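Consider the tokenized backbone below.
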């Protein structure tokens, strides 16, 4: 063969090899990752959303075969969107629910049981994990736990100390009120019914009341519930709250130094610290007879429709590893996670109120009617309408809650 022919032949052979390499299945050189999706309201939040995506990217970089793609949905449309997708046999592989939606998903068989992959003995779960089991079966683990405690501005309260009991609470709120400052704020209008319910739960739970017994029977007119309603009324009548003000407004008033105290969740404390880092911010257990308070609990679940069960379980177990739990808790702020995680001394020195929130976890209770979770929206509507009669109309608390009990029982009895 002439030299020119050899050169052409070599070039042709190289071209063929290149084409073959380009058109060969990619699995011969780099295995494509199996993609699973994870939907959460948190991904749409400013600040925390980006940090959570970076945390997930840590998992993705550690894997050769799996990639988790975050799906950000706004709170207002999250549940409707997810349930519509699930009802059609689709939806994200992994879902962070709010707790009331979690119970609805379990009842509709939309999420998988997790007993086959989660052995309780392998983890030191936080106390609210018990609410992740329905009928003795596990359907999720806590992704985020946000407790309620008393937040206060030491410069606005007497002796710079938090009140230790309810009588001191009232007195401190009265002493702090005046000159454009309010002593305390909470919600007491139907325009903010969900928040009104949360705040009322804290008073009722704090006084030892519960909306139902262990069998799910309603106890809306029990003596302890009535004590909580009476305490709510006393604060309402004390002239220390900005009546009619919504939560967004009075929370802004707090970081502007115009509100001395409020009972709020850890997410709010984090916002205060971020919006006004120089604001004196302190926390203490809520000043009620018992330590019980409300709980914002976000369960982490696996969609029953998933076509990527093994991959979803792989990520699920990665989330529960100690190092990843610590990083998740750090990025969430004042919230806790599924397992017990100790804060670093540096974090506690910078934000000592974190310790108060963490210590509240064993005493927190979901703001749902236990045993009647799916009926909670209907029951809370009845309760709030009757509590407003006590607050605004001066109705007798016992008589009013007796009537609420009868109406709610009739509603629950309907199928």
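A designed sequence for it:
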């Amino acid at each position: 063969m002439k030299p020119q022919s050899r050169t052409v032949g070599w070039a042709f052979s190289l071209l063929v090899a290149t084409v073959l390499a380009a058109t060969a299945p990619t699995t011969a050189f780099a295995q494509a990752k199996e993609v699973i999706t994870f939907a959460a309201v948190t991904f749409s939040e400013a600040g925390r959303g980006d940090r959570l995506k970076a945390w997930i990217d840590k998992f993705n970089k550690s894997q050769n075969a799996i990639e988790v793609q975050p799906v950000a949905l706004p709170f207002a449309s999250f549940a409707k969107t997810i349930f519509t997708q699930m009802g059609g046999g689709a939806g994200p592989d992994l879902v962070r629910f709010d707790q009331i939606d979690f119970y609805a998903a379990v009842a509709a068989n939309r999420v998988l049981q997790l007993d086959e992959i989660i052995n309780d003995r392998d983890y030191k779960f936080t106390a609210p994990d018990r609410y992740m089991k329905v009928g003795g079966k596990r359907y999720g683990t806590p992704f985020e736990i946000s407790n309620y405690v008393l937040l206060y501005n030491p410069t606005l309260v007497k002796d710079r100390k938090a009140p230790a009991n309810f009588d001191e609470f009232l007195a401190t709120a009265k002493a702090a009120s005046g000159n454009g400052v309010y002593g305390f704020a909470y919600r007491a209008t139907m325009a903010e019914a969900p928040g009104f319910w949360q705040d009322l739960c804290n008073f009722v739970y704090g006084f030892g009341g519960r909306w139902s017994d262990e069998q799910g029977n309603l106890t809306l007119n029990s003596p302890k519930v009535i004590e909580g309603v009476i305490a709510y009324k006393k604060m309402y009548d004390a002239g220390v709250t900005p009546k009619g003000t919504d939560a967004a407004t009075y929370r802004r008033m707090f970081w502007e130094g115009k509100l001395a105290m409020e009972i709020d969740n850890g997410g709010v404390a984090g916002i205060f610290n971020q919006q006004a880092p120089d604001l004196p911010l302190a926390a203490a257990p809520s000043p009620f007879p018992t330590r019980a308070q409300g709980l914002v609990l976000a369960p982490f679940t696996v969609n029953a429709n998933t076509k990527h069960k093994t991959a979803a379980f792989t990520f699920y177990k990665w989330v529960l590893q100690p190092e990843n739990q610590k990083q998740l808790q750090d990025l969430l702020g004042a919230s806790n996670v599924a397992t017990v995680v100790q804060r670093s001394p540096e974090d506690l020195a910078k934000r000592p109120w974190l310790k108060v929130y963490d210590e509240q976890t064993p005493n927190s209770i979901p703001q749902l009617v236990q045993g009647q979770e799916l009926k909670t929206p209907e029951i809370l509507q009845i309760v709030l309408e009757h509590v407003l009669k006590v607050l605004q109309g001066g109705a007798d608390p016992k008589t009013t809650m007796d009537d609420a009990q009868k109406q709610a029982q009739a509603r629950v009895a309907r199928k």
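The first strand starts at residue 34 and ends at 40.
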